[in-house]
UniProtKB/TrEMBL annotation:
Belongs to the sodium:neurotransmitter symporter (SNF) (TC 2.A.22) family. It is a multi-pass membrane protein. This is Transporter. The keyword Ribonucleoprotein does not apply. It is found in: Membrane. GO terms for cellular component: membrane. SUPFAM superfamilies: SNF-like (SSF161070). The chain crosses the membrane at residues 12-33, 39-58, 86-110, 145-164, 176-195, 215-242, 254-280, 300-323, 344-363, 383-405, 426-448. GO terms for molecular function: symporter activity. CDD domains: SLC6sbd_Tyt1-Like (cd10336). It comes from the Bacteria. It comes from Campylobacter showae RM3277. Keywords: Membrane, Symport, Transmembrane, Transmembrane helix, Transport.
Length: 453
């Protein structure tokens, strides 16, 4: 396989930003903030991004660029036990798990855009949570055929971009889609902050209530950090394998972590001020943007326009994230099994659609009686990926860097980052001893809470 490199540091950062922003920042982060009491969750999340997120970005970047290969073979090398490649395979399983339900949410968003744009969801009639809940139940939960079609359309859009190449397709899409996403986000934030009575929403979002801090909150935050930064499912490893050897990984990792944190926090300003302005509860969970926000848009002048703009923003965020996650599996198939790119893309997208997307979108209707660990199929994919595979893969990466690669990892990081020598030494000690302990403790707590309690 001809392994190209990113055309510039900026395009790589845009690609990574696209991979890490996605639904993690625009869909998952806001509803977790709402469920966990607001400001306390935001504070812990920002701290966790610094103490766990950025060090783990640097670790995965070191693994990925070291051998410049796929996310499984990246755990190989001279005098390294082949068993370490199990960590890479776990990452691929996590990538499959997240895409199994991620594309379905993309189908939901496409469905809402069509419903609003063509007047089937008349915002002038959206006057209560009961109305939006009924619409959600009718058009999402109880209409698997429509969502199947919308999900398939979203998958085909991904296909059209992926066939342009591992670097070419992702880089080109990120170069145009990320600036558009930022513009739409700023428009929505400005609109929200100019509404009457937004102070209560801003206070809920930014003022920590320390009584809300709990083990569950820490577990939710850790899962969100991994989800938001695409850690633990091979994305960072795959994307960094296309980075030139003279690029400074320290600076790139810090920029990635800060950018993702800023965007996630900004995403909250698109939502919470307006919720409180119109007296809408912020704790409706994963369906927050589908049940609660239409009420907000119904009160706004030009509400239909802003509703379509918001869901278009979600669609762009979903696309910039789904592309690199697919690429993790596609690149592995190309390099390990010598499958031609177009065939690998069809195999990956088709397999995930049939065995992941279809069961997920039928989880609340035709397959509602099927339970895995007491959860429906959609929730099980999320819980197993985020609670088991993401965390264990990240734990494996930290141990691999600190205890197996050792000085080799430091040498890789130092290329292009010579002026950060002292920081790299501190990072190495931290990733070797502290990070594995934190991840292991929270993994045990999370596993117990999700599967044994």
């Amino acid at each position: 396989m001809d392994r190209k490199t990113w055309s510039s540091k900026v395009t790589y950062i845009l690609a990574v930003a696209g991979a890490t922003v996605g639904f993690g920042a625009t869909w998952r982060f806001p509803y977790l903030v709402g469920q966990n009491g607001g400001g306390a969750y935001v504070l812990v999340f920002c701290i966790a991004m610094i103490v766990i997120g950025i060090p783990m970005i640097l670790a995965e970047n070191a693994i990925g660029r070291r051998l410049k290969c796929n996310a499984v073979d990246a755990f190989g090398g001279k005098n390294i036990n082949p068993a370490w490649k199990i960590v890479g395979w776990m990452g691929l399983l996590g990538a499959f798990g997240i895409m199994a339900y991620y594309m379905v949410i993309g189908g939901w968003v496409l469905n809402y855009i069509a419903q609003i744009a063509f007047g089937m969801l008349d915002l002038s009639q959206v006057l209560s949570f009961e109305v939006t809940s009924a619409f959600y139940e009718q058009n999402i939960v109880s209409d698997p055929l429509a969502i199947s079609f919308a999900t398939l359309v979203f998958v085909l859009v991904n296909y059209a971009i992926l066939v342009q190449g591992a670097v070419g397709g992702i880089e080109r899409s990120a170069k145009y889609l990320m600036p558009l996403l930022f513009v739409l986000m700023i428009v929505m934030i400005v609109k929200n902050l100019t509404l009457d009575g937004v102070a209560q929403g801003v206070k809920f979002y930014l003022t920590p209530d320390f009584s809300k801090i709990s083990i569950k909150l820490f577990v939710d935050v850790l899962g969100q950090v991994f989800f938001a930064l695409s850690l633990g499912f091979g994305v960072m490893i795959t994307l960094s394998s296309f980075v030139k050897k003279d690029e400074g990984l320290v600076k790139i990792s810090i920029i990635t972590g800060i950018l993702n944190t800023v965007i996630a926090v900004l995403a909250g300003f698109m939502i919470f001020p307006s919720l409180f302005s119109y007296g809408v509860s912020p704790d409706s969970g994963p369906s927050l943007v589908f049940k609660s926000l239409p009420i907000v848009f119904s009160h706004m002048p030009f509400g239909g326009f802003f509703a379509v703009a918001f869901f278009a923003l979600l669609m762009i965020a979903a696309l910039t994230t789904s592309l690199p996650i697919y690429e993790v599996i596609i690149t592995t198939l190309q390099e390990k099994f010598k499958i031609k790119r177009k065939s690998a893309i069809l195999l990956v997208l088709g397999t995930i659609f049939i065995f992941g997307n279809l069961p997920s979108l039928m989880a609340t209707n035709l397959l509602a009686d099927v339970k895995i660990f007491g959860k429906n199929i959609f929730d099980a994919y999320d819980a197993i990926s985020a609670t088991i595979f993401f965390v264990l893969t990240s734990l494996g990466c930290a141990i691999f860097v600190g205890w197996v690669l050792k000085d080799e990892a430091k040498r890789e990081i130092m290329q292009g980052s010579e002026k950060y020598a002292k920081l790299v030494n501190i990072w190495f000690w931290y990733i070797k001893f502290v990070v594995p302990f934190i991840i292991l403790v929270l993994f045990i707590s999370s596993f117990y809470d999700n599967f044994l309690k």
